[in-house]
Predict the 3D structure of the following.
Amino acid sequence: MWDWSKDYIRITLQQVEIDVKLGLHPWERHPERPTRLLVTIDLFAYQEAHNRRVPINYDSVRNFLKTWRDRPHTELLEELAEDLITVCFEDSNVDACRVELIKPDIFNEAAGAGIEVYRRRRN
């Protein structure tokens, strides 16, 4: 389990806006009208006792998000989240990650609807 008593660094990409073909509802299935998605990613790495910097390159995660514009229609946010988590853990320095996917335009009465997934690296 993640040990919150240890020092760690959090690298974050906040509310990256991506248009993606996404959703179960009939009104979400028009390829000419993709869904606006806000993606927040937190990458966590333990710090050494002597505060050595742990390098994490978030460019690969950002570049992966850019490919979602051309991705085939995806029904569930959970599928996108799992694919994103896989990319996060391609960096061996990432010990845990949190991804949040929010559809800000889905309901008039809500600021957004979405999911958040937190995952630790499996040993």
Summary: The radius of gyration is 16 Å. The chain has a mean pLDDT of 90. The chain has one domain: 8-120. The longest helix spans residues 77-88.
